Amino acid sequence: MKTQHVPIIVGGSNSYIEKHVEDPVFMFNYKYDCCFICIDVERSVLNRRVDMRVDQMVKAGLVDEVRQIFIPDADYTKGIRRSIGVP
């Protein structure tokens, strides 16, 4: 029972994408034909790009944004379970 929709997954690590493709809950392999396009870059190039992107995010207000959702006494060992901007 293949659908007529074409999902596109952009970004994330290989393990993130594999989780979505192989997880029986999503049944991705059953529902869709898969085509993977990967960009392979040298680690130093990737690190430079990530450094530049983080600098841009900080200049755009990342620190203040995080301060708004940070709860000092919260238990963050299981991640952040707070929806931002979603009713």
TrEMBL record:
One of its GO terms (molecular function) is transferase activity. It comes from the Eukaryota. Keywords: ATP-binding, Cytokinin biosynthesis, Nucleotide-binding, Transferase. InterPro entries: Dimethylallyltransferase (IPR039657), P-loop_NTPase (IPR027417). One of its GO terms (biological process) is cytokinin biosynthetic process. Gene3D superfamilies: Crystal structure of tRNA isopentenylpyrophosphate transferase (bh2366) domain (1.10.287.890), P-loop containing nucleotide triphosphate hydrolases (3.40.50.300). Pfam families: IPPT. Belongs to the IPP transferase family. This is Uncharacterized protein. It comes from Solanum lycopersicum (Tomato).
